[in-house]
Amino acid sequence: MSFKTIVIIVLAVLITVIFMQNTDQVMFTLLWKEIYVSKLIMMLIVTVFGFIIGVIVARPKRKNKEVVLETNTSNGNINSADDDYVDMKKKNDLSDEDRDYIN
């Protein structure tokens, strides 16, 4: 097992033990209303919200691909900055006839 899996299992066991030890009723004030709720339920709600917020904050961010454009002032056309660059990963769209002509 990986270290991450062991840590998750240990934390899950500890959280379960803590939840089971706190099952008594407590008064919870929500704005002007007093509610009697089990500590177990309140701790579970707080844990779930904390987990959701952690997932949202820790998710990987998307990298935005920015295209750098420059304006050709002589004729007003917009050309990409890498006009002369030949991308070797692009699919070759030449037909066999065109290849024979070039060679």
Pick out its properties.
single chain; 103 residues; alpha+beta; 2 domains; two-stranded antiparallel sheet; 3 helices; 4 strands; 17% strand; membrane
Q: Gyration radius, to the nearest Å?
A: 31 Å
Low-pLDDT stretches are none
The N- and C-terminal alpha carbons lie at a distance of: 58 Å
Order of helices and strands: HEEHEEH
* Helical content band: 40-55%
**Largest sheet, if any?**
2 strands, antiparallel
Strand order of the largest sheet: 1-2
What is the number of E strands? Answer: 4
Number of domains: 2
Principal-axis shape = elongated
Q: Taking all residues together, what is the mean pLDDT?
A: 77
Indicate the proportion of strand residues: 15-25%
The class by helix and strand makeup works out as alpha+beta
User: What is the number of helices?
Assistant: 3
Protein name: Lipopolysaccharide assembly protein A domain-containing protein
Keywords: Membrane, Transmembrane, Transmembrane helix
Organism: Pedobacter psychrophilus
Structure description:
The structure is a single chain. This protein has 103 residues and is of the alpha+beta class. The chain folds into two domains: 3-58, no CATH class; 69-102, no CATH class. The strands form two sheets. The chain has a two-stranded antiparallel sheet with strand order 1-2. It has helices at residues 3-21, 39-58, 96-102, and strands spanning 25-30, 33-38, 69-71, 78-80. The longest helix is centred in the middle third of the chain and has 20 residues, at 39-58. The mean pLDDT is 77. It is elongated. A hairpin with a 2-residue loop joins strand 1 and strand 2. Keywords: Membrane, Transmembrane, Transmembrane helix. It comes from Pedobacter psychrophilus. The chain crosses the membrane at residues 36-58. This is Lipopolysaccharide assembly protein A domain-containing protein.
